């Protein structure tokens, strides 16, 4: 690993990857398999490979502890009117490995129809499956084979809400009492209609000269939760909350749950307005932002930033390969899809290299 800028700049690189995150490192690993190819990676965060932090990243059971730490960019949204004026933390990994070093390790895939909706051809979806399968074959672990099969075109199942009953208190709005055991019934919206924006902070022409934008200027993140077309998200989540209550009052959960502590049972009337208020006041993010460099498909730069080969419209030699190219959400946690994008992206880069 080269740390000194001028040594790094002197390297005759074939590819320069900005961001040694989830996708960036997968692409770098794949391209550098060819010993003739020189790949450089620029990462803003530390390597965290020496375990000086006591294994906060490498010990799976410690997931969550890195949030708000030096490994986190510590972004936050602007105040959200749709959430009662709250601003939500949007953690992102600032460390080699990127957000995969911070995440909670849930692993699954979207439905075939999710990927078809990106206006890619059935062949390209089949390619994603092939890449997932070859990852599994390389590791040789039967479990990975099982995971890869999720990408198979004939597997079924799609839903608007993911329900997850998990041990521990997931709410930042409820303080656990020491010595007591808690579980949280989570409901996660899979296909949100809310549409927002992320921008670098504005500068007027004077301050742009005296203090240019740096990597430490936090982006202005405005997801516009539950506003405009996103109003339907709030309605769906309020309906889902009603079902959540029913699930918790049905065996086997009734046998496990002694009582609800948050929201307190006597505070919640079972009417739509109350459920809607609960959703506005307590919804947090599921940490799967996408789409800031969305693939524009046939409509080109009008609707997107990159084309179907992940090339930035109008810029030669520049690609984006990460979660930001996803034009639509998939009904799944997105890390597996990010890896599939990276594998597919690396394969396309290699194909194009052969044609030069
Ligand atoms: C708290 C949390 C929990 C999650 N849990 C799950 C889960 O359980 N399952 C799941 O599937 N997904 C989960 N996700 C989502 C998933 O981890 C991310 O979507 C995915 O890792 C994003 O990968 P990426 O390659 O697009 O970006 P990243 O992995 O974030 O990579 C971007 C990299 O670029 C670097 N970088 C940024 N700016 C610069 C710069 N100017 N110069 C140099 N480097 C720069 C960053 O430091 C970072 O290393 C979670 C996310 C979070 C935040």
UniProtKB/TrEMBL annotation:
Pfam family, one: GMC_oxred_N
Record keyword Zinc present: no
Residue ranges constituting the Glucose-methanol-choline oxidoreductase N-terminal domain according to the UniProt record: 93-116
Database matches in InterPro entries: FAD/NAD-bd_sf, GMC_OxRdtase, GMC_OxRdtase_N, GMC_OxRtase_C
Subcellular location: Cytoplasm; Secreted, Cell wall
Keywords annotated in UniProt: Cell wall, Cytoplasm, FAD, Flavoprotein, Oxidoreductase, Secreted
Molecular function GO labels: flavin adenine dinucleotide binding; oxidoreductase activity, acting on CH-OH group of donors
GO terms for cellular component: cytoplasm
Domain of life (superkingdom): Eukaryota
Cofactors demanded by this protein: FAD
Similarity-based family: Belongs to the GMC oxidoreductase family.
Protein name per the record: Glucose-methanol-choline oxidoreductase N-terminal domain-containing protein
Provenance organism: Penicillium alfredii
